[in-house]
Amino acid sequence: MEIQPKKCLACGKPVRGRSDKKFCDDYCRNVYNNKAKGAHSSLIRNINNILKKNRNLLASLLSQEQETIKIEREKLSGLGFRFGYFTHQYTTKKEATYFFCYDYGYLPIDNGWFLVVKGKKLKDKDYLF
User: Number of H helices and number of E strands within the chain?
Assistant: First the structure.
């Protein structure tokens, strides 16, 4: 009985070497894995890019001396801020809800104004405004 050589999952060429080897080389392994993860990771990558852009925009508004700043919604939108994307929310005892993009957040206040804040790190784990 003749044993059929295993074929590369990416290109179909015969695979030589270890019995559990699936690809003929690193290039084929990368091509195969990139195709397999492409659709899902593309969506996640795009959302993460939006979140990073939002965070960096909020960070650029505050200087190192400032802890908060007020800004109009139109100005934030004009800078490319996307309000539908945030990492988490924090609701205070007074029912005010802050929206955070990682460690920077904003609080909607009166008439289209927002208060931008930098979160404070607690116990080397979580951020609290």
Answer: 2, 7
- Scored b (16 or more CB within 10 A) or e, 72-93 reads eeeebeeeebeeebbbeebeee
- Contact call for residues 15 and 22 (beta carbons, < 8 A): yes
Give me the amino acid identity at 89: Q
Task: Please check whether residue 69 is in contact with residue 105, taking contact to mean a CB–CB distance below 8 angstroms.
Answer: no
Q: Residue 100, exposed/middle/buried by CB under 10 A (0-12, 13-18, 19+)? A: buried
Write out pLDDT tens, residues 9-57. Answer: 999 999 998 989 999 999 999 999 888 877 677 788 899 999 999 999 9
87-120 confidence digits (pLDDT tens): 999 999 999 999 999 999 999 998 999 999 998 7
pTM of the shown model = 0.68
What does residue 76 show for φ and ψ, rounded to 5 degrees?
-60, -45
First to last CA, the chain: 71
